[in-house]
């Protein structure tokens, strides 16, 4: 029976509740975490370099999570880093999602030349892994935050385009689209008012899959020095700066690492749950 | 007559929280050698679960909670996995509803048959080859070499079902279980397959447990009939007893729901609202690099429709009836022909159809599940149809409410979403939406074929009532001659994209001129009782 | 052209085979152990002049020999000169030096080194002519007007004006002797990829992004090489280098971050080597208005001085380096022997009040100054920069650090501050750091990324310095040069660089106070 | 069928041409390529020399034509630092990366598919949950961090070195970097295999096979596996990009002498000819790999061969 389930309601496993809780906590920390610390995130202190976290040593120190090699408070840096990482991940993923979905919708709706052109662009993008593009671009231009966002934003649009095109094609076979056409609704009305909301779930699930990937991508770019540039910071950058000090300043990698890992994990779990709640056949195993 | 299968008090529990505690409750039946027992019921009645229980292949969520099943006089070793495995496909053969879905899509057909034989102990390769050849002959498959090497998707529905039957019979089973084996097939194919199953069963002397929702089919093949409703047997008896002296109201309801020829009052001919002449449509799908195939979908079809008239278009899958509808709706651009809609020449519109014309022509589609936008309240869906054509928000809402009443849905339905409705209710919503623009022509494209029998009858009645009340012209597309005969004034029979017969319903049914029409009429299940118009003795039963 | 495609296909096919059927390394018959040195990078070419760099210096001296050497064995600052390929040298006229070459020295291809090779190595066509093969040499060869092989083992060098210290320049990269015939046969590029020298090791393999391998040269003129083979392996990650050393895969690793020294020192089987080297990280102020920087606030010397005076560089250096190095008074470097004056103080030292006064005197209006920094090029540089930026912000000067991936990007304007390091190793006196690195022929003045125009006073003092024969006179000119430089303040020196290695505990190798790493018998104890 | 394959090949070639064109215009867009290609402190006359040598004094369309013609004829340019032909530099690195990448892919596929299968077969059990948790963990772990952990643990705890020692001396050495690189893909494969297999197991034909008495193991291996493999092949194609990206990081961490390290090195030294060739070569490889995936897909799924619905 092809009974479709309602998009909301039903019981939620504890793992998903926990994940949602963590994501909420993460967002709160990113927004307000800076106020937990008396320091500015750029404020360096010559005398307090690589202070261990007071939270663990129990020492009387204002550095609850310790300091980095420049004597900057890790807590406030994590908050700012979380903020920037979140912006990079969400904005980057959004650019991909909006741009890719729109093109996918057009390709699915219009077919013909528009489709061929878009799908060729998809092929081109698919043949160029982001890190290669990033290295190429950075060899040519100076790194900037906007450039980084654009690069990250344009990595995964092809995934959305493929997915949305396939979903649009299958939505087109649905009776409600035919009914709308017979009613004389405009193409814009059909695709934006009816098809798009119905494939939105698929985009949403894809979003939850690509968001952690984007976070990890930013981490990898930071490791190569291609990510967010100082004095701005990101979780990936904090972690990357701490990587040589794993043996004597574990907090520099452990805290941002745990945050990245838990965020990626939570979003993945939420995505899995969403996928299970929605029609799984619509999301997986489809091919353009 | 020796008994092949004896079931006593079989009960299968549903998981907790379901709408009823048992999928099957207290089922007892017995199938003798050479005997055909039909299990009849609508979807969800528990008939397929019964078959799974016998085979020991119940889904994990379902548990057999009581009853005994014995096979050839001995209890089925349901707990002994290995023994059951040998029995399945060996002494018990099974035929499924969707023939192509019951074959592995990525394995060649021959290999699947070969595997079956090999698993069941036919060790020699030559022997297996020989047996397969015999089976192909027995199920009357043409071109065995090609089919042996073919993948399931390369077979027609009928061919695939013959393969499935061949598999079921491959090891000369004592019991054959057929679960809706013809539902997915065309009428003529259905007739052939039914005959084939019956013949082979009779010849082999196996017992046949036949599961179906179609009483017509039951009438054709059953010796013994059990009617199931919500997991319980409500009526049991020989074929003749059940058909002529049904006792349970549900059985009567089912029997009454079988569409039958209706005498249609002779009405004065209204003005011409649709005139199609010499329509041609060819699809040209891309077939890889620089290649295009040509598929002629509609060839030289002419049709006329008058106000107040119901014109049926009958044909099997691939006959071009849906393509014709798409041409008329200008969803496809025809290659040749003249199309006049409400006196306007459709040829003047290069692409699509101008909006004011659209409202004059509406459609109700086959699948009520996909025809509604799942994210739109149904009231809004109906109102939207009116709004697209210029009604104000308030007007449209009022219209939607009125229409909901007209299709017998409660006013509260307005605020609900499609998933809250059953298939039949959804089809009512679709009809309401189609009527929201006050169309002159309503096209029903297989509009009732996805529904259960009893629902079919209701929707058919609704169409009839609305049509008489509102007086629109109707193009009724169906593969089912019985349905067509129940509502149409005129009828067009299509075959391979062409019109083979056109005329008044009675003329076509009583005096078919074309072979194909005759074939179709022959294929109607339970044609004996179909010929008489209506079961008069049932009409009297309360 | 199609040839190249064929070759491409062939190499591709071969590489597939290679990927899946790799054979082990070649057997070692030598009794001497092989040696693996994990470095953070290699220079793209091994031509010792084109490749003048920290990373190049780690290889060059093992493959080539200079005509004259510094004696790091006896003097940590290397201020005494000892014979190299030149057995002796003599000033035969005020402007002419005559070298007598060592006889019987063989190049790695078996040919004997002659005066022709020396003359070629120091020639105008290679170093100091119009379009030299190795343009970076011109600055080092400054003043040279004639190079001539006067006999099979004698070479005459003539300078523009009398230069008592010229001979010391033959200890630098231009003093390496290259085989003329081979060089001319293969050309500059190919030579840089497969160089031949007279050194203790003979290069067998070179891929600048992966490794360089050299085997002991059995016919070396000096003491036999202590290792059968030396491999410079590019291992960019410190953790990986440390892991390789700790597990015995590597014998020596470079660049232990300062705050990892304790970790390394406590790793079993590993010892830490820290030494100061004659190299000074610094930054240059862009004092010019070229390329659209018309409003460059740093034209104003007061702003520059304010920035210098605002920083307590000593404290930063002390904190960052844990007392292992120091911040020099401008151009007052210990490796300059007699010129070094421990008492001299900087004209513009740390003085907060003075900094504010300078700032008030300037026209600075809060414009953002951009500091171009190449990522990870100098240990602690970015860290120090962050501290300095904080200090400047306190004072009201806005500096923004931009970390870039390579020098090419760093050299792209606009920038106000540019990171760099300057070496002092050269002639054992302030000639290079002051006059060659800041003088009229320096890249600070001539290159596309130039940052200043020397003042009249600087030019005058420089020429005086260049031509002075006597120490007193030179010293006076040197102090005038420093004063002229400080008067303009076109840059700021941060600290004397530190070089850190970690080494297998049982190995006895000393780096000397030089960035050049040499693995010959002078630096390695054969017992180890 | 041949038409379809031919169509795919043509499309791949168009893809490549577009990439090549993009690279060309990108380099032109970034400013003066001569200045970019010349050594950093080159004087103006040297830059002018480069400009002439590169034909930059000619009109843009002519430059573009010459560039494409050069590529077709196998003239890919020379490294500015070493003067070696770029394809030679690049190809010298291919074996190492190929070894790393294919081993990682092998590990990811074998382990991922096995774990996914185990999870699917023991659906909703503790084992299933554990496998899925592990696969999410593998996916969410930044691979440079994992790599460094592996290296440090190996060396300091077990005295074994997992990093590069120059060249690829033995196959055992590839295991640690390959496992690091393959970890994320392994997680994806496990999750994907699980859902794909579950979907296949729920298909009507699996029930039909059971009803025909085909033994469970045979149903799994001969029927469920090939059907479930079809979407996994798609996944394989999609994961290649991630693998290439991961290889860059992993090579850097393990000091593995492959293409990734070359690229980073070339970016640091701004060796544009090498970068340009690398981008084109990677794009070529990816396009080729995607083509192969498509063909495998055709081969696996007979339905596509006919309908041509790709």
From TrEMBL, chain A:
The keyword Ubl conjugation does not apply. Residues 82-271 form the ABC transmembrane type-1 domain. InterPro entries: BP-dependent_transpt_permease, MetI-like, MetI-like_sf, OppC_N. The keyword Transmembrane applies. It comes from the Bacteria. It is a multi-pass membrane protein. The chain crosses the membrane at residues 20-37, 84-107, 128-154, 249-270. SUPFAM superfamilies: MetI-like. Keywords: Cell membrane, Membrane, Transmembrane, Transmembrane helix, Transport. One of its GO terms (cellular component) is plasma membrane. It is found in: Cell membrane. Pfam families: BPD_transp_1, OppC_N. One of its GO terms (biological process) is transmembrane transport. Belongs to the binding-protein-dependent transport system permease family. This is ABC transporter permease. It comes from Arsenicitalea aurantiaca.
TrEMBL record, chain B:
GO terms for biological process: peptide transport; transmembrane transport. Signal peptide: none annotated. PROSITE patterns: ABC_TRANSPORTER_1, ABC_TRANSPORTER_2. It is a peripheral membrane protein. GO terms for cellular component: plasma membrane. Residues 5-255, 274-521 form the ABC transporter domain. It is found in: Cell inner membrane. GO terms for molecular function: ATP binding; ATP hydrolysis activity. CDD domains: ABC_NikE_OppD_transporters (cd03257). Belongs to the ABC transporter superfamily. This is ABC transporter ATP-binding protein.
From TrEMBL, chain C:
It comes from the Bacteria. The keyword Signal applies. Residues 80-440 form the Solute-binding protein family domain. Residues 1-27 form the signal peptide. It is found in: Periplasm. GO terms for biological process: peptide transport. Keywords: Signal. Pfam families: SBP_bac_5. InterPro entries: SBP_5, SBP_5_dom. PANTHER family: D,D-DIPEPTIDE-BINDING PERIPLASMIC PROTEIN DDPA-RELATED (PTHR30290:SF38), PERIPLASMIC BINDING COMPONENT OF ABC TRANSPORTER (PTHR30290). Belongs to the bacterial solute-binding protein 5 family. This is ABC transporter substrate-binding protein.
UniProtKB/TrEMBL annotation, chain D:
Residues 94-297 form the ABC transmembrane type-1 domain. Its main location: membrane. GO terms for cellular component: plasma membrane. It comes from the Bacteria. The chain crosses the membrane at residues 12-31, 98-121, 133-162, 174-193, 228-254, 274-300. One of its GO terms (molecular function) is dipeptide transmembrane transporter activity. PROSITE patterns: ABC_TM1. SUPFAM superfamilies: MetI-like. Belongs to the binding-protein-dependent transport system permease family. This is ABC transporter permease. It comes from Arsenicitalea aurantiaca.
């Amino acid at each position: 029976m092809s009974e479709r389930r309602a998009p909301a309601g039903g019981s939620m496993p504890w793992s998903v509740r926990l994940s949602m809780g963590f994501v909420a906590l993460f967002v709160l920390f990113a927004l307000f975490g800076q106020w937990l610390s008396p320091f500015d995130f750029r404020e360096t202190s010559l005398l307090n370099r690589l202070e261990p976290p007071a939270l663990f040593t129990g020492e009387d120190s204002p550095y609850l999570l310790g300091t980095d090699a420049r004597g900057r408070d890790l807590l406030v840096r994590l908050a700012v880093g979380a903020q920037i990482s979140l912006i990079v991940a969400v904005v980057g993923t959004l650019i991909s999602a909006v741009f890719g979905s729109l093109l996918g919708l057009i390709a699915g709706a219009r077919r013909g030349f528009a489709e061929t052109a878009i799908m060729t662009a998809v092929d081109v993008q698919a043949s160029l892994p982001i890190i290669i593009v990033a290295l190429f671009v950075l060899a040519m231009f100076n790194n900037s935050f906007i450039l980084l966002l654009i690069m990250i934003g344009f990595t995964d649009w092809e995934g959305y385009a493929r997915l949305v095109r396939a979903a649009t094609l299958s939505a087109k076979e649905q009776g409600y689209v035919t009914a709308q056409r017979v009613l004389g609704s405009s193409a814009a009305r059909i695709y934006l008012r009816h098809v798009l909301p119905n494939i939105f779930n698929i985009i949403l699930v894809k979003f939850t899959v690509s968001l952690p990937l984007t976070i990890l991508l930013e981490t990898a770019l930071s490791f190569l020095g291609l990510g967010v540039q100082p004095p701005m910071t990101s979780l990936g950058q904090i972690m990357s700066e701490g990587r040589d000090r794993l043996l004597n300043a574990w907090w520099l990698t452990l805290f941002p690492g745990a945050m990245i890992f838990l965020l990626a994990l939570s979003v993945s779990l939420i995505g899995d749950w969403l996928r299970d709640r929605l029609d799984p056949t619509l999301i997986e195993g489809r091919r353009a | 007559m020796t008994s092949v299968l004896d079931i006593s008090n079989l009960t299968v529990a549903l998981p907790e929280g379901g709408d009823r505690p048992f999928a099957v409750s207290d089922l007892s039946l017995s199938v003798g050698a050479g005997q055909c027992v039909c299990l009849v019921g609508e979807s969800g009645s528990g008939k397929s679960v019964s078959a799974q229980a016998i085979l020991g292949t119940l889904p994990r969520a379902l548990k057999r909670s009581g009853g005994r099943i014995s096979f050839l006089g001995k209890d089925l070793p349901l707990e002994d996995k290995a023994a059951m495995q040998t029995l399945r496909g060996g002494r018990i053969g099974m035929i499924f509803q969707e023939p192509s879905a019951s074959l592995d899509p990525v394995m060649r057909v021959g290999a699947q048959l070969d595997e079956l034989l090999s698993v069941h102990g036919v060790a020699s390769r030559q022997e297996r080859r020989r047996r397969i050849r015999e089976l192909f002959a027995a199920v009357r498959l043409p071109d065995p070499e090609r089919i042996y090497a073919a993948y399931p998707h390369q077979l027609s529905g009928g061919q695939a079902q013959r393969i499935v039957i061949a598999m079921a019979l491959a090891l000369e089973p004592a019991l054959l279980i057929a679960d809706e084996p013809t539902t997915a097939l065309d009428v003529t194919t259905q007739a052939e397959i039914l005959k084939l199953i019956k013949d082979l069963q009779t010849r082999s002397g196996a017992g046949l447990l036949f599961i179906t929702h179609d009483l017509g089919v039951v009438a054709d093949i059953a010796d013994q009939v059990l009617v199931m409703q919500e997991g319980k047997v409500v009526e049991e008896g020989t074929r003749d007893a059940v058909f002529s002296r049904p006792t349970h109201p549900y059985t009567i309801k089912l029997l009454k729901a079988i569409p039958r020829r209706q005498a249609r009052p002779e009405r004065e001919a209204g003005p011409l609202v649709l005139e199609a002449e010499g329509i041609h449509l060819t699809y040209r799908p891309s077939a890889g690099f620089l290649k295009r195939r040509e598929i002629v979908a509609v060839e030289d079809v002419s049709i006329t429709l008058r106000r107040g008239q119901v014109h049926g278009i009958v044909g099997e899958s691939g006959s071009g009836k849906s393509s014709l509808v798409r041409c008329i709706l200008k969803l496809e651009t025809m290659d040749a022909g003249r199309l006049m809609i409400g006196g306007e020449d459709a040829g003047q519109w290069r692409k699509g159809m101008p909006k004011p014309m659209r409202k004059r022509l509406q459609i109700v589609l086959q699948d009520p599940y996909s025809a509604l936008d799942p994210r739109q309240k149904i009231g809004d869906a109906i109102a939207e149809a009116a709004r697209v054509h210029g009604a104000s928000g308030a007007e449209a809402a009022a219209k939607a409410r009125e229409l909901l009443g007209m299709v017998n849905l409660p006013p509260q339905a307005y605020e609900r979403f499609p998933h809250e409705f059953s298939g039949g209710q959804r089809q009512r919503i679709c009809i309401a939406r189609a009527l929201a623009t006050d169309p002159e022509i309503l096209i029903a494209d297989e509009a009732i074929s996805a529904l259960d029998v009893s629902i079919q009858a209701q929707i058919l009645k609704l169409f009839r009532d609305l049509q008489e009340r509102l007086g629109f012209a109707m193009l009724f597309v169906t593969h089912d001659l019985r349905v067509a005969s129940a509502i149409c004034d005129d009828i067009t029979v299509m075959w391979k994209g062409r019109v083979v017969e056109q005329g008044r319903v009675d003329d076509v049914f009583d005096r078919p001129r074309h072979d194909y029409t005759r074939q179709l009429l022959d294929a109607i299940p339970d044609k004996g009782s179909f010929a008489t118009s209506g079961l008069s003795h049932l009409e009297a039963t309360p | 052209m199609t040839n190249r495609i064929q070759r491409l296909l062939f190499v591709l096919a071969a590489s597939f085979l290679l990927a899946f059927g790799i054979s082990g390394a070649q057997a070692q018959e030598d009794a001497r152990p092989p040696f693996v040195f994990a470095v953070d990078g290699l220079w793209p070419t091994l031509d010792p002049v084109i490749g003048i760099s920290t990373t190049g210096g780690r290889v060059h001296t093992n493959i080539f020999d200079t005509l004259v050497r510094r004696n790091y064995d006896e003097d940590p600052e290397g201020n005494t000169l000892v014979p190299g390929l030149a057995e002796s040298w003599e000033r035969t006229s005020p402007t002419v030096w005559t070298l007598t070459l060592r006889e019987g020295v063989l190049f790695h291809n078996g040919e004997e080194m002659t005066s022709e090779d020396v003359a070629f190595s120091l020639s105008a066509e290679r170093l100091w002519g119009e379009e030299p093969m190795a343009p970076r040499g011109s600055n080092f060869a400054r003043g040279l007007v004639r190079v001539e092989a006067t006999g099979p083992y004698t070479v005459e060098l003539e300078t523009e004006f009398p230069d008592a210290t010229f001979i010391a320049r033959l200890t630098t990269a231009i003093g390496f002797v290259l085989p003329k015939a081979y060089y001319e046969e293969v050309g500059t590029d190919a030579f840089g990829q497969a160089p031949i020298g007279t050194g203790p090791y003979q290069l067998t393999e070179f891929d600048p992004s992966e490794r360089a391998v050299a085997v002991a040269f059995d016919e070396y003129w000096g003491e036999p090489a202590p290792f059968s083979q030396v491999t410079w392996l590019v291992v960019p990650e410190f953790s990986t280098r440390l892991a390789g050393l700790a597990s015995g895969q590597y014998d020596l690793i470079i660049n232990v971050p300062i705050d990892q020294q304790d970790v390394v020192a406590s790793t079993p089987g590993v010892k830490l080597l820290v030494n100061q080297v004659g190299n000074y990280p610094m930054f240059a102020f862009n004092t010019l208005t070229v390329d659209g920087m018309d409003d460059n606030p740093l034209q104003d010397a007061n702003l520059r001085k304010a920035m210098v005076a605002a920083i307590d560089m000593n404290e930063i250096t002390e904190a960052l380096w844990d007392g292992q190095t120091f911040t020099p008074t401008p151009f007052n470097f210990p490796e300059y022997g007699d010129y070094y004056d421990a008492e001299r103080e900087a004209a513009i030292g740390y003085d907060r009040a003075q900094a504010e006064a300078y700032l008030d005197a300037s026209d600075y209006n809060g414009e953002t100054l951009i500091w171009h920094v190449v990522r990870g090029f100098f240990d602690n540089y970015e860290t120090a920069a962050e501290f300095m930026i904080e200090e400047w912000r306190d004072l009201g000067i806005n500096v923004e650090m931009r970390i870039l991936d390579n020098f090419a990007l760093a050299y792209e304007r606009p920038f106000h501050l540019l990171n760099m390091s300057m070496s002092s190793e050269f002639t054992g006196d302030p000639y290079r750091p002051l006059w060659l690195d800041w003088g009229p022929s320096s890249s600070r003045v001539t290159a596309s990324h130039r940052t200043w125009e020397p003042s009249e006073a600087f030019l005058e003092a420089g020429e005086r310095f260049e031509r002075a024969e006597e120490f007193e006179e030179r010293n006076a000119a040197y102090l005038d040069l420093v004063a002229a430089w400080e008067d303009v303040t076109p840059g700021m020196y941060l600290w004397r660089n530190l070089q850190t290695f970690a080494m297998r505990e049982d190995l006895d190798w000393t780096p000397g106070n030089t960035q050049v790493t040499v693995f010959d018998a002078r630096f390695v104890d054969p017992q180890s | 069928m041949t038409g379809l394959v031919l169509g795919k090949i043509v499309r791949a070639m168009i893809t490549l041409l577009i990439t090549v064109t993009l690279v060309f215009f990108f380099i032109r867009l970034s400013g003066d390529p001569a200045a970019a290609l010349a050594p950093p402190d080159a004087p103006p006359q040297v830059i002018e020399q480069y400009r002439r040598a590169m034909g930059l004094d000619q009109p843009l369309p002519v430059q573009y034509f010459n560039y494409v013609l050069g590529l077709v004829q196998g003239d890919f340019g020379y490294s500015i630092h070493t003067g070696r032909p770029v394809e030679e530099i690049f190809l010298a690195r291919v074996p190492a990366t190929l070894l790393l990448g294919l081993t990682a892919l092998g590990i990811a596929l074998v382990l991922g598919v096995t774990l996914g299968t185990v999870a699917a077969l023991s659906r909703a059990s503790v084992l299933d949950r554990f496998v899925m948790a592990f696969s999410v963990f593998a996916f969410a772990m930044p691979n440079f961090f994992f790599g460094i952990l592996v290296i440090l643990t190996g060396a300091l705890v077990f005295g074994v070195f997992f990093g590069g020692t120059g060249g690829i001396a033995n196959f055992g050495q590839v295991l640690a970097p390959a496992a690091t690189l393959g970890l994320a893909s392994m997680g994806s494969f496990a999750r994907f295999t699980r859902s794909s297999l579950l979907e296949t197991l729920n298909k009507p034909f699996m029930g039909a096979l059971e009803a025909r008495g085909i033994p469970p193991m045979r149903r799994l291996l001969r029927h469920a596996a090939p059907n479930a493999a079809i979407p996994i092949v798609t996944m394989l194609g999609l994961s290649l990009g991630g693998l290439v990206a991961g290889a860059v990081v992993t090579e850097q961490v393990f000091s593995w002498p492959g293409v990734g390290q070359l690229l980073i090195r070339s970016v640091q030294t701004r060796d544009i000819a090498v970068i340009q060739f690398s981008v084109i070569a990677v794009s070529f490889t990816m396009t080729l790999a995607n083509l192969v995936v498509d063909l495998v897909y055709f081969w696996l799924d007979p339905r596509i061969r006919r309908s041509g619905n790709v």
